[in-house]
# Entry
Amino acid sequence: MAGQERLVVCTTCRREGWLPDELRDGARLSAALTQRGVAHDIQECFSACSNSCVVTLRGPGRWTYVQGGLDPDHDLEEVIAFARAYQASADGIVPWRERPEVIRKNTIARIPPLED
Amino acid sequence: MAGQERLVVCTTCRREGWLPDELRDGARLSAALTQRGVAHDIQECFSACSNSCVVTLRGPGRWTYVQGGLDPDHDLEEVIAFARAYQASADGIVPWRERPEVIRKNTIARIPPLED
# Structure
């Protein structure tokens, strides 16, 4: 994401069935986003492990969204689509109809913007 | 909370067993905090309903914590203690031993500070 809006990916997230010898699912999601040229920050643990994989979208003056239940093998396009819609929005609120289903169904929390 | 750190309480939260004729549990938590003189903001829905009651602690340059599983009848002192410890901390991270048990066990998400 090019502006002050930031997509942040948990790189320590591991989903059920993850094998210890494998790269963590969250790290794979981050690598896949990098490969697609999608700028993002990384974070070791959002303390939302039971809902992994987890990403956060936030920015100054915007609502913050914490999204979980993401599968790096299946939900990459949805994460990218939501991140772009978030960036295009005025305040971080993406209209419901523009939210991919995996996003609609797995909002862990939304947090209002900080007041000045 | 007196500084730029803010405690935000969801006033639409309702726990299992809540009765439709009653004030919502989150609104009761907010009222109880007001009665104790604890400044806070209110928010209609953090989209974390399955973990109600929910509060958020955040501030400029600080980690944001989303905390759930709060019972307005039993956890008021714990919410106040955690809010004060958060305010006293440098960056929003309260040492583990200073976190009340209901806070330790019910962190929905933590989000790193926005970078400048």
About this structure: The longest helix of chain A spans residues 76-88. Chain A touches chain B at residues 6, 8, 41, 43, 45-48, 54, 56, 58-60, 64, 66, 107-112, 114-115 (CB under 8 Å).
